[in-house]
Design brief:
The chain is an alpha/beta fold. Helices cover 31% and strands 29% of the residues. It has four helices and seven strands. It has a seven-stranded mixed sheet with strand order 2-3-4-1-5-6-7, with helices on both faces. β2 and β3 (48-56) form a beta hairpin.
């Protein structure tokens, strides 16, 4: 079921597109991230959220909120990942199960793809304490991996996650 679909104008032939996959424990988290920064959400289904962030007349960022697990990572993802600037993996800091849900995805992505990956912990309100269950939590970050915090309710905070990923892309240029 498609919830929202909009007609778009003819594309600019000089337009450059950057693509980023947004992965998270649930649809609501990914949707909140994409809605916080995108000019418009083009497609929304139960398995995919697609939003577009227009940077200027020549650059647009496509954000794909997707579900990824080992069973969904088939050869088509190998092709898709070649085009991606990177992955942003979200989890809710206040929910230790949320981190557990994405840890295997982070391990899988880091082992399979050599592209930038940002793990972003969503903070609710002004939460700063570390939940007890997360004190000994372990996330294996590769040289391509970054960890940061964000507030999905704050567009500036979400943009900072995107900037972290873009900086990681730039740091890896030869």
């Amino acid at each position: 079921m498609i919830v929202a679909e909009k007609q778009t104008p003819a594309p600019n032939t000089n337009m450059r597109i950057g693509e980023i996959a947004i992965v998270g424990p649930d649809l609501k988290t990914k949707k909140s991230f994409i809605n916080a920064v995108c000019d418009d959400v083009i497609v929304e289904t139960e398995n995919l959220i697609f939003g577009r962030l227009q940077i200027n007349d020549e650059l647009v960022i496509h954000l794909y909120g997707v579900d990824l697990s080992e069973k969904e990572l088939n050869p088509s993802w190998d092709l898709v990942s070649r085009k991606l600037l990177g992955y942003i993996v979200l989890f809710n800091w206040s929910n230790p199960n949320s981190l557990a849900d994405v840890t295997s995805t982070v391990d899988l992505l880091a082992a399979r793809y050599d592209i930038p990956l940002v793990i972003a912990a969503n903070l609710k309100n002004s939460q700063t304490s570390v939940p007890r269950e997360l004190l000994n939590a372990e996330i294996n970050l590769t040289r391509q991996g970054q960890f940061t915090f964000c507030k999905l309710s704050d567009p500036k905070s979400v943009k900072n996650v995107l900037i972290t990923l873009i900086n990681s892309v730039l740091d890896n240029l030869n």
